[in-house]
Write a structure and sequence with these properties.
Layout (H helix, E strand, L loop, with lengths): L27 H15 L4 H8 L3 H8 L7 H10 L4 H17 L41
Helix pairs in contact: 1-5, 2-3, 2-4
């Protein structure tokens, strides 16, 4: 009988333990989920109400908000649409959240580590590709 030498498996982490000097980078699903939850709560709407409007199940929406599920672009667009946002608004809010976390001294932890931001509380409007302000569905500009 031959003796086999121990050959431990090499473990490659799915996410690096550290992403530069600022610490861990948040997962996309955590940030997007936090944005969806803040928007829903800012509108004082229930999970069931938004899930029905988005035509997705309430447990699935809950898992999206908690960062437990990674929603497809279609599901995220449906959830955003149920909140009166388009996908560009959701992406802009998510980008703002990531930028705020980076500016907050590298505190890139879970969603609750930085004060909430919603469309209603934005100080600067998101911009479209041509530099104009993003508008919600049905919103009309009164400026000349």
């Amino acid at each position: 009988m031959s003796s086999h030498a121990s050959n431990p498996a090499r473990v490659v982490p799915l996410r690096p333990a550290s992403a530069g000097p600022t610490g861990k980078e948040p997962l996309w699903r955590d940030v997007v989920g936090g944005v969806l939850r803040r928007e829903r709560l800012a509108q004082e709407r229930t999970l069931q109400d938004v899930a029905d409007a988005a035509r997705i199940s309430m447990p699935y929406l809950s898992e999206l908000e908690r960062g437990r599920k990674e929603g497809s672009s279609e599901v995220l667009a449906a959830a955003a649409g149920a909140l009166g946002l388009d996908l560009a608004d959701l992406l802009a809010l998510t980008q703002d959240e990531l930028a705020r976390r980076a500016a907050a001294g590298g505190r890139l932890g879970r969603v609750g580590s930085v004060p909430p931001l919603s469309v209603a509380s934005r100080t600067t409007a998101p911009r479209n590709r041509s530099g104009g302000p993003l508008r919600h569905r049905g919103e009309v500009s009164l400026a000349a």
